[in-house]
Amino acid sequence: MKIATFNVNGIKSRLPNLLEWLQREQPDVACLQELKALDGVFPQAELREAGYHALWKGQRSWNGVAILTRGGEAVEIRRELPGDPGDEQSRYLEAAVDGIVVACLYLPNGNPQPGPKFDYKLSWFERLLQHAQALWRSRHPVVMAGDWNVVPTDFDIYNPRSWRKDALLQPESRACWERLLGQGWTDAIRKLHPQEAIYTFWDYFRQHWEKNSGLRIDHLLLSDELSSCLQAAGVDTWVRGQPHASDHAPTWVQLDLGRLAGRPR
């Protein structure tokens, strides 16, 4: 099973890019973030024609998450991150896909910091930590995939000096990430590529894409049950070089589900 995450940065305006990627790479599951569209204008018909079922939760102008599945349909588990009933931002969607729990998330950016947006980022992260612990203890095979808006280490960015004040590199953000890994989750890219500079995001300024001045902020974390199934992981960087591209590139893992205990091989 190939599971990918992709911040599309506007699903209406970049639908051709999304469809081209789906046709060429054919992930079995695709977690999308930053739809920037209300539920009623989500391109369900176009995606269905491309061979994908969809669950989604939109929001006007901002945020929005979706889970696409090729072949069978996903079974929705929850549409929000537990812990704050008053939080109306569309940032979390969880579903069961072929016996795997897939959590699609769009962690808050947090800029400018310090300030209320950074406070919200950290409080959202605390809620995620609590829910992730519950998912881990469930012993279900789980993948948490999305735009985490965290650069885990200085190795995950082309040049940390000019980003030191950014919320993505703050010690508090990185400490939350480390606490999450401390629960036992596996960072798929780093497990298979521990010494390789890999980026998933290049902003639109100062020719950062052309110079490969990127950041790694899109991650797939695997539960213990899925970590043993990991075969490959990578980034479809060609997508970032297409006309009218998102500033993110799809990031993916390939899993051999036959390795799951009790599953037919």
TrEMBL record:
Domain of life: Bacteria
Keywords: Hydrolase, Magnesium, Manganese, Metal-binding
Domain Endonuclease/exonuclease/phosphatase, chain residue ranges per copy: 4-248
CDD domains in the cross-refs: ExoIII-like_AP-endo
Molecular function as annotated in GO: DNA binding; double-stranded DNA 3'-5' DNA exonuclease activity; endonuclease activity; metal ion binding
Residues carrying the site annotation Interaction with DNA substrate: H248
Record carries keyword Magnesium: yes
InterPro entries: AP_endonuc_1 (IPR004808), AP_endonuclease_F1_CS (IPR020848), Endo/exonu/phosph_ase_sf (IPR036691), Endo/exonuclease/phosphatase (IPR005135), ExoIII-like (IPR037493)
GO biological process, one term: DNA repair
Site (Important for catalytic activity): D218
Residues that coordinate or bind Mg(2+): N7, E34, D147, N149, D247, H248
Alphabetized Pfam families for the sequence: Exo_endo_phos
PROSITE patterns for this protein: AP_NUCLEASE_F1_3, AP_NUCLEASE_F1_4
Named cofactor requirement(s): Mg(2+); Mn(2+)
Gene3D superfamilies (UniProt xref): Endonuclease/exonuclease/phosphatase (3.60.10.10)
Note on how the cofactor is bound: Probably binds two magnesium or manganese ions per subunit.
Active site: Y106, D147 (proton donor/acceptor), H248 (proton acceptor)
EC assignment: 3.1.11.2
Sites marked Transition state stabilizer: N149
Family: Belongs to the DNA repair enzymes AP/ExoA family.
Protein name: Exodeoxyribonuclease III
Source species of the chain: Ramlibacter pinisoli
Annotated gene: xth
